[in-house]
Design a protein that fits this description.
Layout: H1 16-31, E1 44-49, H2 55-66, E2 70-74, H3 88-98, E3 101-106, H4 111-119, E4 123-128, H5 134-148, E5 155-160, H6 166-178, E6 181-186, H7 194-201, E7 206-211, E8 227-232, H8 246-251, E9 256-259, H9 273-277, E10 296-298, H10 319-337, E11 361-362, H11 376-379, E12 390-396, E13 398-402, E14 408-409, E15 413-416, H12 417-420, E16 428-431, H13 436-439, E17 445-448, H14 451-456, E18 460-461, E19 474-475
Parallel strand pairs: 1-2, 1-3, 3-4, 5-6, 5-9, 9-10, 16-18
Antiparallel strand pairs: 6-8, 7-8, 11-12, 12-13, 12-19, 13-14, 15-16, 15-17
Helix pairs in contact: 1-10, 2-10, 3-4, 5-6, 5-10
Amino acid sequence: MNMAGRSMVTIDDLSNGEIEGLFSLADEMSDSMGQQATLCQGKIMASLFFEPSTRTRLSFETAMNRLGGRVISAVDIGATSLAKGESVADMARVAGSYADIIVIRHPWEGAAGVVAEYAGVPVINAGDGGHEHPTQTLCDLYTVKKERKTIKGLRIALSGDLKYGRTIHSLSYALARFGATILFHPYPGLEMPEYVLRKLTTRCKGKLRRYGALGTASKEGLFPIDAVYVTPSSPHQLAMIPDISMQVELEKDVDALYVTRIQKERQKETEGKETKNGHVVVDKELLKKKKFKKTIIMHPLPRVDELAYEVDGDPRSMYFKQAARGVPVRMALLALLLGAKEIIIPDVDDYSSVRQEDYPVYRRDSGLKCSNPKCITNQESEIRYIKPAFRIVSLKPLTLHCFFCEHELYPKYIASADWHEGKTETKKYHSATSSWIRRIQPEKLIIFDSEEEAQLRGFKPSSYVTRDTAPENTDI
Ligand code: CP
């Protein structure tokens, strides 16, 4: 398969088969690291890191150098014209006219998606705020496969900051798609965002089981835990046994324990106190538990105090291998997106059957804004070149996903473009919980955040504005 010209903004941008093919190519790169120096000769990679980085930036730059390409870089927003008020889109257009491929890390969620829209060359997301970090996920999955030979059916525990950990978000989607069972152990107050859980249970076809009260650390340490438990719905056996004892399940062996630091730089000022109390340190003592006997210990790094240095010499620790594998994995990705290599797609189970494109897209200018203040659509709203866009993922209750950062939005009012066109007397808006939601075709749907917004645009309230129906989850 030829992947030339494609971007990787989220982990959804590669199918399971493509990821498997990329891993085979990474093996090839790893075995012949010093013999790839002509593969991307003459190509230039723009390395734009507007947040601190050691591993991602250096491994991408090493990868491009190993492939015989060249690197141009910017590592500080303050040293670029973004500091003078230039938009991300303009920066992307310009960088895309200098380089053959762009690797970008940016603090705003959805920024990499905007760069991909405007650059005109392939774009790789090296982390966009708390949203996603898909190439870290490639390194993580590659490590799991190397150490465990498969991903399907493994039990993988994710511990730490699940709220702001972008590596956690991308990794969860991929693990669910590949058929792993995921155990979440969040630090109190840093639980997995609802929008991620919804995506795991809809697009990634996972089945969610909540266990215990989230936010209360177990007296016995990390496990048994208060957790949210995701199993792939099919064909995984566990999901087919509805009354299986969760306690028994949680006490089973864990194949991999993935630890993350608290993302202090993304926390609100009010956050932090409760997190400190539930902070679990992965150390020699914890790893003595029977269920961790064969567990591989993973961490995207950097670590702070959640993973003891005494674990480094333990053969179960994988985090420095994960970082080192970033070079062959990123060499493979660069070579594919630059068209220097092609891959054969193996015949593997593909859990990503519900792709993002399957949801109706809402792009109408009706004053609707993304609910996430860190989304690029809100950060650059004054320049007004980005038109907010949403995927309609559910009608009952009406639920939208921001196209750029994927945060959820539950708008309250709707109207139909069909009925009011040319007739002001039928220019009425209704409650989003009324039965009108089913009667309006997605392409005719007008959605408002508030009654004020609807009235500002000349709509009058219908008798269905306050008539609510019982909420029931109807995914599209
Ligand atoms: N794992 C990771 O993204 O590390 P850096 O922040 O050092 O790039």
